[in-house]
Task: structure prediction
Amino acid sequence: MTQTSSARLRPDERRAQILEAARRVLLADPHRELTVELVAAEAKVSPALLFHYFGSKKKFQYAVIEEAAAEILLRTAPDQSLPPAEQLRSGIRAFVRAVLEAPQLYRATLLMSAAGDPEVRKLHSDLRSVFSTWVIGAVRETGVEVTPVVELACLGWQGYVEQTLLLWIEDATISTTDLEHLIERSLDAILSTTHPDPGRPPGA
Result:
């Protein structure tokens, strides 16, 4: 599409066109930093026009992160046709794979949230809430009684997943397959610590 023909697009269509260009840039090289210049070139518009439609680099980054978050939630939604245990495993794997399709974007989300950016922090909080609600529900469906201890373990596990993914993005010391298996098995390992110890006195 040329700049002349793209000029006929409505504002919402132009925004969608630019966000789709951002997606193509990410898919072409997931580890590359997503810059305004790269996306503008891919969308065949000027950086100034991109700023016109998004207002600022920060607002553009937020729009891309927001769309990526929606994609992650869509892809990790439980597959009701699978047995409960497989729903849980496949959902975790789908989450990891979705993150690894745009690792630098996920990294930016975590770092911007940690830095206190209010919009990204809320988006990150919403993403965590939806994912943790799904994971806890899936754990319950496998027959595990979701006690306060189990719920806390699931929430803590999500923090472990985020930190593990962030470390891997910064230094990929293992394969993506090994990373998937590590994260998938880690939930079982953490949940195993919530089982009562028959040899331990109550309250000890």
In short: The two ends are 69 Å apart (CA to CA). Residues 118-141 form the longest helix (24 residues). Residues 1-6 have pLDDT under 50 and may be disordered.
